Structure formats: structure tokens, C-alpha cells
Amino acid sequence: MRLNKFLTMVLSVTLFSLFYVYQQTEIVRLAYSEQKQHSVFQDLLDKNSNLRYNIEKSCSLVNIGASVSNHSDFQMPDKFQLVRLVPGKEGITFVQQSANKETLLSRIFGKGQAEAKTINP
Predict the structure, then answer these.
(1) Could you tell me what percent of the chain has a pLDDT over 90?
(2) Which residues have CB under 8 Å from 7's CB, separation 6+?
(3) Residue 54 and residue 52: Cα distance in Å, rounded?
């Protein structure tokens, strides 16, 4: 009878030990899996921030201005030309108006031409 109790005890301790080792290996496996997923997630976040930076850089006014000024066919007018559409018997005709025409209000309230200055870093 003693041998039977001893074998039962050894068998139960062995099964408990195997279950405990299996449980610990699963914990380590899941930890590695979570760490790998976290690494992939961080890589995706880095790629996302790089793409957002590239989009913001491509859509910036400085980049758009540089791409517009690189085209040889783009030309800024020296003076503004106002055009008025006049309906007539033959159709619509264009009448050019001078931009320097001063009115009473422009003489009273006008102080000069407004200019924008660029800031070069």
C-alpha cells in the first residue's frame, strides 16, 4: 500500500509540474507575441508620422511656390487689369478698366499700396 501511495504522489506531483511548466512557457510565448505586435505597431506609427510629415511638406506654401516658380510658362503680371463684361447686341464684350482709377473714397481712405513681406528662415 505504501508503494501505491508513493506512486500516486509522484504521479500527481509530476503532472502538476508538467502543467506548471506548460503554463509558464505559454506565458513567455504570449509575452513574446505581444512584444512583437508592439514592435510592429510602433513601426506603423513611425511610418504614419513620416507620411504625415511628407504630406504636410508637399502641401506647404513654400513647396507649392517653388514648384510654380520652376515652370517657365508661369508669369506674374506687372499690373492688375480689371475687365468688365458688357452685354451688347452682338454678345458680351470685354472692356478693360484701368486699375489706377481713383474715386473720392479711395482718395480719402486710401493710404497707399499694401505689400506683403516674406520671412526667410
Answers:
(1) 40
(2) none
(3) 5
